[in-house]
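Cross-posting from the chemistry board since nobody answered there.

I work mostly on the small-molecule side, so proteins are not my area. We synthesized adenosine-5'-diphosphate and want a rough idea of how it might sit in this target. Sequence and SMILES are below. Is it possible to get a predicted 3D structure of the two together?
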Amino acid sequence: MAQAVASSTVTRTDEPVLRTDDLVAGYLPGVNILNGCTVDAYDGELIGIIGPNGAGKSTLLKAIFGQVRIRGGAIWLKGEEITSLKADKLVAKGVGMVPQNNNVFPSLSIEENLEMGIFQSPKKFAERFEFVTTLFPELEKRRRQRAGSLSGGERQMVAMSRALMMDPSVLLLDEPSAGLSPVRQDETFLRVAEINRAGVTVIMVEQNARRCLQICHRAYVLDQGKDAYTGTGRELLNDPRVTELYLGTLAADEDAKRKGPATAEPPTASGFTA
Ligand SMILES: Nc1ncnc2c1ncn2[C@@H]1O[C@H](COP(=O)(O)OP(=O)(O)O)[C@@H](O)[C@H]1O
Ligand SMILES: [Mg+2]
């Protein structure tokens, strides 16, 4: 499949930045996790991917990023087929990925982590460092600090910045708010929205369905490896089929909201705690 990729010269007008077309993929022989998944992200969009645990959300991002065997369908980046390309090629072509776990090098400093993000074009380091520290000014102040000594929320900022170093055409985020306190979750959503406003097309997988739908332009509900519903964030928030199917998640979110943040710690202007 990858061979067909290199020679592909399809150009279409109003091309999505990223498109997965009827994607079928899985880990074990004979077991498909993605069952015909079609997702588009157009230039400048913030796309949310929600759905129950095990629906295949992480698998979708991993499949885009060349980490899961693709058995059917195709992936397109700005009109070029990128199906089954390896991660290093995808990064060079403009796909940035922030996995849910182990997304920073803990023994390296913040600055070294960012260098790792752009090792393919080290000459661009200064220019890109300036871009990411405009979004995350606290990273510049603490550039020599070891990433392993940072809080979960801070590590998430470093991981997103690392992926942004290559100036990606599309940024894939797997549950950036997972494991964070409600306050830090809110902050993370604000940061993702800022990254998007800075012109980066984002595809964000989220377990916090309500918050995700509130900030994204459009979203897809994944169910058993298929895009079951799609619409604007607002449409899906008001779609009884979606709220019914995911009432558990949405109700739990509402519950958490009523109870207020679990921590009394207020968000700092910079997003970092002292
Ligand atoms: N490395 C793997 N090997 C085999 N099965 C896997 C692997 N990773 C995930 N799965 C299975 O794929 C399904 C979808 O998982 P995942 O994409 O992580 O779901 P989600 O992110 O929506 O919670 C689950 O049934 C999970 O057990
Ligand atoms: Mg997942």
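Reply from a structural biologist on the board:
Welcome over. Reading the output above for you: The two ends are 50 Å apart (CA to CA). The pocket of adenosine-5'-diphosphate (ligand 1) is lined by residues 27-28, 33, 51, 53-59 (CB under 6 Å). Happy to explain the token format if needed.
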